[in-house]
């Protein structure tokens, strides 16, 4: 009986140690937004610029719900360049002649990264992932401006601690979702088609 009790106690202690083991992660971002091809853009020339206005470059944190351990989730990639590439690709599929904005040029479409958050809260028995992305589009056509905020939020509860590979899948899905919301906004697309 004592052996069974000791085995259970050892198992619970091991789970507790796993829950407090939080290590930093450098995630590989690879958004790949699926956009239906159309001619909505009427071959309008759209210059695109993406700027990052987040308070810091940290994507989020991995933390333990039962201990004070916490580690950063980061990327060494150029987040604005990744998002800009996907926006340009998506606009091109919608019939626009989309191009990166030149250095001293005012863009027709400026996309502002306001928030990209990906937090993992590890518990002893389960983990929770909270994601939040906010992009602001500022379009300027013929002296008028159109601004819209786009959001993608999600919360997942998992029976396990997500691996780095799973975290990459989930954060790329969040990026895909928020970029897709922007590209599928009929008001923005209609506004840009008049450029």
Descriptive notes:
- This protein has 195 residues and is an alpha/beta fold.
- 31% of the residues lie in helices and 35% in strands.
- A hairpin with a 5-residue loop joins β3 and β4.
- It is elongated.
- The protein contains four helices and eight strands; from the N terminus they run αββββαββββαα.
- The protein has one domain (2-192).
- Strands 1, 2, 3, 4, 5, 6, 7 and 8 form an eight-stranded mixed beta sheet that branches.
- α2 crosses α3.
List the helices and strands and how they pair.
Layout: H1 2-20, E1 25-26, E2 45-52, E3 60-64, E4 70-74, H2 79-93, E5 97-100, E6 109-122, E7 127-141, E8 144-158, H3 164-183, H4 186-192
Parallel strand pairs: 1-4, 2-5, 2-6, 3-6
Antiparallel strand pairs: 3-4, 6-7, 7-8
Helix pairs in contact: 2-3
Briefly, what is this?
With 195 residues, the protein is α/β, with parallel strands linked by helices.
Q: Tell the overall outline.
A: elongated
What is the multimeric organization of the chains shown? Answer: single chain
- Rg over CA atoms: 21 Å
User: Major β-sheet, in short?
Assistant: 8 strands, mixed
Helices and strands, in N-to-C order?
HEEEEHEEEEHH
- Look at the helices and sheets and give the structural class: alpha/beta
Q: What is the number of helical segments per DSSP (H or I, 4+ residues)?
A: 4
The amount of beta strand, in percent, is 25-35%
What is the percent of helical residues? Answer: 25-40%
Distance between the ends: 79 Å
Count the domains. 1
Question: What are the segments in which pLDDT stays under 50 over at least 5 consecutive residues?
Answer: 9-20
Please, what is the average pLDDT? 90
What is the number of beta strands?
8
């Amino acid at each position: 009986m004592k052996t069974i009790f000791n085995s259970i106690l050892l198992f619970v202690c091991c789970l507790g140690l796993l829950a407090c083991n939080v290590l930093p992660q450098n995630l590989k971002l690879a958004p790949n937004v699926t956009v239906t091809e159309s001619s909505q853009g009427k071959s309008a020339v759209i210059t695109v610029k993406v700027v990052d206005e987040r308070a810091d470059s940290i994507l989020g944190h991995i933390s333990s719900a039962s201990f004070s351990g916490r580690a950063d989730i980061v990327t060494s990639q150029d987040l604005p360049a990744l998002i800009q590439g996907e926006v340009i690709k998506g606009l091109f599929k919608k019939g626009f002649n989309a191009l990166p904005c030149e250095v001293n040029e005012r863009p027709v479409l400026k996309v502002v990264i306001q928030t990209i958050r990906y937090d993992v809260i590890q518990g002893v028995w389960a983990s929770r992932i909270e994601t939040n992305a906010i992009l602001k589009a500022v379009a300027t056509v013929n002296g008028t401006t159109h601004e819209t905020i786009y959001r993608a939020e999600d919360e997942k509860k998992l029976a396990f601690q997500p691996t780095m590979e799973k975290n990459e899948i989930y954060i790329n899905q969040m990026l895909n979702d928020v970029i897709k919301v922007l590209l599928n906004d009929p008001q923005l697309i209609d506004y840009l088609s008049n450029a």
